[in-house]
Amino acid sequence: MDIDVRGPRFGAAVTTVVLAVVLLTGSAWLLAWQTLAFALGAAGGVGKSPYGWLFRKAVRPRIGPPTEFEAPEPPRFAQAVGLVFAGIGLVGYALGLTWLGLAATGAALAAAFLNAAFGYCLGCELFLLIRRATVRME
Hints:
Layout: E1 3-4, H1 6-25, H2 28-44, H3 50-63, E2 69-70, H4 73-94, H5 98-118, H6 122-137
Antiparallel strand pairs: 1-2
Helix pairs in contact: 1-2, 1-3, 1-5, 2-4, 4-5, 4-6
């Protein structure tokens, strides 16, 4: 079942704010929260993430029904990519490797910002590239 394209973009906007605050404060706890949000989105799809729930319950009723849809697999894969970067950042902060925490969090922030501001999902594009490459190989 296809999903409302506005949901992942809303989630990316919230993620952008969360990751910016992590970079400003160095809060490993806040990054742990974001890592959990990515994990839930990767495991169950973006609708199962806390930001997906917030979009569905608080935002979508106020902005009306969707007019554009997309397949759920690319955003779900993007959540998994975000999970990897947030996890690396969390390990960096936990081990006192601040440079690693900053770099991994910054990379995740850049990807989230591109999606939130411009609707360009790097993880989704990576998913499609991998899919095209594997289809051609078969």
